[in-house]
Amino acid sequence: MANREVILLRGDELRTLEITVGAGQARELVFVALPGESGVIDCSVSVSFSGEGGDCVLSGLYLAGGSSRVNFTVNVEHGVPRCSSSQLFKGIVAGRARTGFFGLIRVPEHCIGTEAYQQNHNLLLGDDCHAQSLPQLEIYADDVRCSHGATFGRLGDEELFYMRSRGIPEFEARRLQMTAFASEVLEGLPEDIVCQALEALESLL
Amino acid sequence: MNDILLEVKDLHASVMEREILRGINLTVRRGEVHAIMGPNGAGKSTLSGVLAGKPGYTVTGGDALFDGESLLTLTPEERSWRGVFLGFQYPTEIPGVSNTQMLKSAVAAHRRAQNLPELSSKEFIKLMDSKLTLVKMDRSFLSRGVNVGFSGGEKKRNEIFQMAMLSPQLAILDETDSGLDVDALRIVGEGVNSLRSHDNVFIVITHYQRLLDYIVPDVIHVLYNGQIILTGDRSLALEIEARGYDWIINQHNGK
């Protein structure tokens, strides 16, 4: 089990992180971005590897409502063969908020045996919010396993009606669905951070 | 308490400007089981959707009274609190929300609406255990995402389980038999029968008469082209099984 670091970003934050993963080392970082009503969060993460067998797991959750802004820029440079990385960033975007996810995985020619995955999923509430996603792969090596994906969705009407038909009030049915979406990232995090995230999630309803 | 639990009066409804229900009249008394049969496209699912408050339907005329009160202005959750339950033809999958979570919210909302105190965790688990036995479902169902990865039979048993948890006064079962093998059909039938009382009502919507071997109806209606064109007793289902719908439709069209 990797040593997990949790990075909570609240309100206005400008954060730059440079992570070097050593040979055979495993790192795990979880970002939770809660800008509040009008905060601006800009977080750049650069990951590089200094020896073979390194593993880096990044995940993140951003809950942006009001007029807030959240940007994540993630660069993973697979400069050493046989290292692995994965990224899972999820966002719930409401109000007039704007979010961006810019992710780049670069695998130079000699870096065979690389495994690198990148996922960005966005749940949009309302018509005035805006989420941007730019997942990019730059792969020059053969014999690698890499994938990326981005999705944008809304709360499912069918799911909402199903729950409401069982007597669950609409706001609670929405909250259940949003919590389900966020739980993939929140699972296993310290309780006080989960509480802060759930509070922020509730404010987006 | 009204003897008549549900009274549908000249109900018209359309979907995207197309009229599907063209004047439904239906009176259901407490303690009765009604079956609604009919060919594909007759409006069976529209009728159940309109009664449960599913978005996407526009009621253009008539009314549906539940215990004397119009259902049509109520939200789906308000209808549920009053005692209306819809068993879905295609139960929705909700990834990430467990059966327990959903039912806990649902039961809590029902109890709030009835001014009853919240159940303790122990009481809630006891209630779930007793209802699971009814549909012969394993406890492991509870922690799984709602209907996620369930087989067709498991989904339908889950509908009956949820119904048992909420003990509705009016349960509308929309083609609960579709996709069921004989064993699942029997379990569903037994589940429904154990919940029958002289106060509540079941409306069973079905294509086939085989479910009606297990859930014996008092009244059978044939729905065609948005109207109930024939009402009879149980023997009508057997006749439909043997002869199809054409003779009824022809009779209705005056041929």
List keywords for this structure.
heterodimer; A: 205 residues; alpha/beta; 6-stranded parallel sheet; 5-stranded parallel sheet; 19% helix; 51% strand; B: 255 residues; Rossmann fold; 6-stranded mixed sheet; 4-stranded antiparallel sheet; globular
Descriptive notes:
The complex is a heterodimer of chains A (205) and B (255). Chain A is an alpha/beta fold and 205 residues long. In chain A, 19% of the residues lie in helices and 51% in strands. The model of chain A has no long low-confidence stretch (mean pLDDT 96). By secondary structure, chain B is of the alpha/beta class. Chain B has helices at residues 44-52, 76-82, 99-113, 121-134, 140-143, 152-166, 182-195, 234-243, 246-252; strands spanning 4-15, 18-29, 33-37, 58-66, 69-70, 84-87, 94-98, 145-146, 170-174, 201-206, 219-224, 227-232. In chain B, α6 (152-166) packs parallel to α7 (182-195). The radius of gyration of chain B is 18 Å and the shape is globular. The chains are: A alpha/beta (205), B alpha/beta (255). At the A-B interface, α1 and α2 of A face α2, β7, α3 and β8 of B.
Spatial shape of chain A: elongated
In total, the number of domains of chain A comes to 1
**Count of helical stretches of chain A:** 3
Main sheet record of chain B? 6 strands, mixed
Give the terminus-to-terminus CA distance of chain B. Answer: 44 Å
Seen as an oligomer or otherwise, the chain set is: heterodimer
Low-confidence stretches of chain B: none
CATH top level label of the domain at 4-93 and 168-252 in chain B:
Alpha Beta
Gyration radius of chain B, rounded: 18 Å
Question: In brief, what are we looking at here?
Answer:
Chain A has 205 residues and is α/β, with parallel strands linked by helices.
Write the layout of secondary structure elements.
The complex is a heterodimer of chains A (205) and B (255).
Chain A lengths: L2 E8 L2 E9 L4 E9 L5 E10 L5 E10 L4 E9 L6 E10 L4 E10 L7 E10 L5 E10 L5 E9 L3 H8 L5 H17 L4 H13 L2
Parallel strand pairs in A: 1-3, 2-4, 3-5, 4-6, 5-7, 6-8, 7-9, 8-10, 9-11
Chain B lengths: L3 E12 L2 E12 L3 E5 L6 H9 L5 E9 L2 E2 L5 H7 L1 E4 L6 E5 H15 L7 H14 L5 H4 L1 E2 L5 H15 L3 E5 L7 H14 L5 E6 L12 E6 L2 E6 L1 H10 L2 H7 L3
Parallel strand pairs in B: 3-10, 3-11, 6-9, 9-10
Antiparallel strand pairs in B: 1-2, 1-4, 4-5, 7-8, 11-12
